Amino acid sequence: xxxxxxxxxxxxxxxxxxxxxxxxxxxxxxxxxxxxxxxxxxxxxxxxxxxxxxxxxxxxxxxxxxxxxxxxxxxxxxxxxxxxxxxxxxxxxxxxxxxxxxxxxxxxxxxxxxxxxxxx
Length: 120
What we know:
Elements: E1 3-7, E2 10-14, H1 25-38, E3 42-46, H2 61-71, E4 75-79, H3 83-88, H4 90-101, E5 105-108, H5 111-119
Parallel strand pairs: 2-3, 3-4, 4-5
Antiparallel strand pairs: 1-2
């Protein structure tokens, strides 16, 4: 079940591991509605909820999902191990590295890593 947690002094909307795909517009729109209702400005999304094409940048799924959330001024943390996909794709490696340098989109292994990032 989705829930709001306090991490690093911020309210974080944590999406459940299972649920509707957020790669589809209806699932993503539903999430955005939930985010506005929750008051959280940070959303933690398990990689499993983003669909199999999310880490294949040429599919456009990552761009669509992340841009929509960023346009609504949410900070996004993608939760999960992306190391195998990063090792297989130079563009993805660069995207993850640059994202993690910023403040809007982060790729982290788990909620503990997100909490550490929010407190630093």
